[in-house]
């Protein structure tokens, strides 16, 4: 019996090779896509899950008047004293850039941390060498990741080697750890003991509002109520700092697993956050892909039912029962699905590294063989077999022998059948994906091209190695024919580095609000093309001048309750503990990502803290200009590597998570639409064969080529129109929810939906065009010659 089933299945494949290939290809692509999406979603939603204490680990944040991930360096020692029951308390200080010197070779490295000895008790990394308990306990010690150790020392043992950091600290290698996985909110290339830098911080670092970028992490004892600790924080602040401060200041405890997904906190371009909902949406795309492939299988199987009607009739006449026929057809379906799954595993294995590189995520291809992945794959295989095989098996096994032997199954092609319902569902899925992808694309374009309130084109920024040489640097830069302008500050407009409480007692505003402080020179506003709305720009002042004249932005004027820019002139505010006079108002500019609304900003002059240079380069000779800037840099700072960043690149880093997701949506939405097109092509092909004689008769009676094409297209156009009515509100709701993650967003106008409908029609038209035109051009004599 089994041998007979195999022979029949093989012959059926030979007779219907095109349909089998369509099914296998569609299933292979869909299952491979689902595997890749599952690994992406698992990776992204699994941030920091690999730490054994992750469920009890919290970051201590500052929410006095805004969400800030950093707290004073004085918080950690105070926590250890006042809360001895805490299992661990660790001080971490993340750094964007550091220069390492090994022998005579120098390297600029992005992303490292100062961490104390308790860091390794909280966070689990695989130690290859060294003792995690003591590696960071002493000053001047460094722990390297495996890739950095290989880069610096090759096959030589790195343990005990000396490394110089920033021409300031000579560090001894005390440990090697495996590179952190990609889904960690604490990425690093190396760790330096916090004891190394602690002595240089000074007593001012312990002030409550001395926010230097440090992070505090704690681990609660098992079964310790979080609310108990959180409830004691007000008294903790009052005891260690000030009772009045405790009335407003708070130290919320943020779960470690939420850090990557909490977009309320101040922007960190090095460790960007994203929404969990975005990856849930990507998982839904995977579901759409597998549903589309199953629909294809059901549609093509039921469409071919008529071709197997006589086979079913003969088998039933010879005594075959319905259960035997169901087992036969389910066996054929299972064979195709299992074969497709095996191909999908091979495809995913080879495509996963490419997809990971394209999406800028760390996923190892060996993750395909993890038990959870294999369990999902098995469940998916069973589900696809049931979804794709049961209905066709029951339809084909239910044919009546007498009708089947006459070539009639009782199932008409015309009419609103299940097949058309499934095609309608495919069109709904396709249109939701098309409209959604278009809206995501518009939002990404908005990020890239919307007016930021300043001119970002052809501007590079870099930090000075020695502030005392600032004027020499300025002169060398201005002597460079490729440089059009130069300014110094604490950072270009998109570098938020100083945040401070602000109040205005004379205006009745005594409650602080978080305000960004930008300390700039007299060229800053002009160079960045900022628009003054009232008053004067920042002017140079002598070192002995103790007055603080400031320029503020529109948002700050509104916060103060002042009627307009002109009325703000001459008003006094208290910013960063300094009494200031407003002499100008500048139009709002974007200093953070568009996830957040523009915050109040105060701009003033103080040449003592100018550590960042911004250089505007003339168009046409970018490479030569940068080469000369680099040469001049090394003439002044021979011991410091030159590192610069284009403002465009820094702004793009705000949205790298969204770019990653947008790329994934484009890729997998396109695959879902492609799979749907394969099924539509198969149906049109089958319809053309079924209606060959009808087409021939119509042509004999004078039907033109457009008439024949319209014959095949009209029912699909109707289905697309019905699908649009369903898809449009679904797409609007989903995308409206997604856009709510951003403070500034594009509108969802009717144009997007009309464009989506037109694109759906065009895709369907291109899919059915070939077969419908081929049928229309066929010689009617051949189709009418025989029955």
Structure described in brief:
The protein is of the alpha+beta class and 787 residues long. It contains 26 helices and 21 strands.
Across the major sheet, the strand order is: 2-3-8-5-7-6
- Which regions contain 5 or more consecutive residues with pLDDT less than 50? 409-416
Number of strands: 21
Largest β sheet strand count, sense and barrel closure: 6 strands, mixed, barrel
Oligomer: single chain
Mean pLDDT figure: 83
Distance separating the two termini: 34 Å
**Helix content percent band:** 40-55%
Strand content: 15-25%
SS-derived structural category: alpha+beta
C-alpha Rg (nearest Å): 34 Å
Overall outline: globular
The helix tally amounts to: 26
Question: Topology of this protein?
Answer:
Elements: H1 2-15, H2 17-45, E1 57-60, H3 75-82, E2 88-102, E3 105-115, H4 119-122, E4 127-130, E5 141-145, H5 146-153, E6 162-165, E7 169-177, E8 190-193, H6 194-198, E9 214-219, H7 226-231, H8 233-240, H9 243-248, E10 253-255, H10 276-303, H11 309-317, H12 322-359, H13 371-397, H14 401-405, H15 418-449, E11 459-463, H16 470-479, E12 483-489, E13 499-504, E14 509-519, H17 524-527, E15 532-535, E16 549-553, H18 554-559, H19 565-568, E17 572-575, E18 578-586, E19 601-604, E20 612-617, H20 622-636, E21 645-646, H21 647-653, H22 656-690, H23 692-700, H24 705-739, H25 750-777, H26 780-784
Parallel strand pairs: 3-8, 5-7, 14-19, 16-18
Antiparallel strand pairs: 1-9, 1-10, 2-3, 2-6, 2-9, 4-7, 5-8, 6-7, 11-20, 11-21, 12-20, 13-14, 13-17, 15-18, 16-19, 17-18
């Amino acid at each position: 019996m089994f041998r007979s089933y195999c022979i029949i299945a093989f012959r059926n494949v030979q007779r219907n090779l095109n349909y089998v290939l369509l099914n296998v290809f569609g299933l292979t692509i869909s299952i491979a896509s689902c595997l890749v999406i599952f690994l992406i979603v698992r990776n992204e939603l699994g941030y920091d899950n690999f730490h054994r204490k992750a469920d009890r680990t919290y970051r201590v944040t500052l929410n006095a008047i805004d969400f800030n991930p950093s707290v004073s360096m004085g918080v950690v020692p105070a926590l250890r004293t006042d809360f001895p029951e805490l299992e661990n308390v660790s001080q971490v200080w993340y750094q964007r850039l550091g220069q390492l010197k090994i022998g005579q070779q120098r390297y600029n490295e992005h992303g490292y941390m100062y961490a104390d000895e308790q860091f390794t008790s909280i966070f689990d990394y695989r130690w290859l060498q060294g003792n995690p308990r003591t590696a960071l306990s002493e000053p001047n010690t460094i722990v390297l990741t495996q890739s950095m150790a290989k880069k610096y020392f090759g096959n030589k043992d790195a343990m005990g080697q000396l490394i110089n950091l920033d021409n300031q600290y000579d560090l001894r290698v005390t440990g090697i750890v495996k590179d952190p996985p990609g889904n960690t909110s604490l990425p690093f290339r190396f760790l330096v003991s916090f004891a190394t830098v602690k002595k240089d911080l000074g007593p001012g670092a312990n002030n409550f509002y001395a926010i230097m970028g440090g992070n505090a992490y704690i681990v609660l004892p098992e079964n310790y109520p979080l609310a108990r600790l959180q409830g004691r924080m007000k008294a903790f602040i009052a005891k260690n700092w000030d009772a009045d401060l405790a009335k407003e200041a708070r130290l919320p405890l943020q779960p470690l697993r939420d850090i990557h997904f909490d977009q309320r906190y101040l922007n960190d371009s090095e460790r960007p956050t994203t929404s969990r909902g975005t990856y849930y949406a990507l998982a839904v795309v995977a579901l759409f892909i597998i549903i589309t492939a199953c629909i294809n299988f059901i549609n093509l199987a039921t469409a071919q039912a008529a071709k197997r009607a006589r086979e079913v009739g003969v088998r039933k006449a010879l005594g075959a029962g319905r259960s035997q026929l169901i087992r036969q057809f389910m066996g054929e379906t299972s064979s195709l699905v299992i074969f497709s799954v095996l191909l999908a595993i091979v495809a995913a294995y080879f495509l996963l590294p490419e997809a990971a590189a394209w999406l800028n995520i760390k996923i190892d291809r060996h993750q395909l063989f993890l038990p959870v992945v294999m369990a999902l794959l098995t469940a998916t295989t069973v589900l696809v077999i049931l979804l794709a095989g049961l209905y066709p098996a029951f339809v084909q096994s239910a044919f009546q022998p007498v009708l089947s032997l006459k070539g009639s199954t009782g199932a008409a092609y015309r009419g609103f059948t299940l097949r058309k319902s499934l095609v309608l569902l495919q069109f709904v899925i396709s249109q939701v994906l098309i409209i959604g992808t278009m809206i995501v694309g518009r939002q990404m374009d908005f990020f890239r091209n919307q007016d930021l309130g300043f001119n970002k084109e052809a501007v590079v920024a870099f930090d000075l190695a020695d502030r005392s040489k600032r004027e020499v640097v300025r002169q060398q830069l201005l002597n460079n024919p490729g440089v059009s302008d130069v300014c110094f500050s604490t950072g270009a407009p998109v570098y938020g580095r100083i945040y401070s409480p602000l109040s205005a007692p004379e205006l009745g505003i005594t409650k602080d609000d978080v305000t960004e402080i930008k300390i700039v020179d007299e060229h800053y506003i002009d160079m960045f093309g900022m628009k003054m709305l009232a008053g004067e720009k920042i002017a140079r002042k002598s070192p002995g001048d103790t007055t603080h004249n400031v320029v503020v932005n529109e948002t700050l004027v509104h916060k103060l309750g002042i009627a307009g820019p002109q009325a703000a002139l001459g008003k006094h505010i208290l910013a960063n503990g300094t009494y200031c006079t407003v002499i100008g108002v500048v139009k709002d500019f974007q200093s953070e990502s568009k996830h957040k609304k523009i915050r109040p900003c105060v701009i003033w002059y103080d040449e003592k803290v100018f550590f960042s240079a911004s250089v505007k380069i003339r168009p046409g000779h970018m490479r030569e200009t940068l080469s000369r800037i680099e040469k001049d840099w090394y003439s002044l700072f021979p011991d410091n590597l030159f590192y610069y960043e284009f403002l465009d690149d820094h702004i793009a880093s705000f949205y790298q998570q969204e770019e990653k997701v947008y790329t994934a949506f484009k890729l997998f939405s396109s695959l879902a639409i492609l799979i749907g097109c394969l099924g539509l092509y198969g149906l049109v092909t089958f319809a053309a064969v079924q209606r060959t004689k009808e087409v021939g008769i119509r042509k004999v009676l004078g039907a033109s080529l457009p008439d024949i094409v319209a014959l095949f297209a009209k029912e699909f156009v109707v289905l697309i129109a019905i699908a649009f009515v369903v898809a449009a509100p679904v797409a609007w709701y989903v995308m409206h929810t997604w856009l709510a993650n951003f403070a500034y967003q594009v509108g969802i106008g009717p144009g997007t939906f009309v464009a989506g409908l037109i694109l759906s029609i065009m895709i369907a038209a291109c899919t059915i065009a070939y077969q419908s035109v081929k049928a229309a051009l066929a010689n009617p004599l051949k189709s009418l010659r025989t029955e």
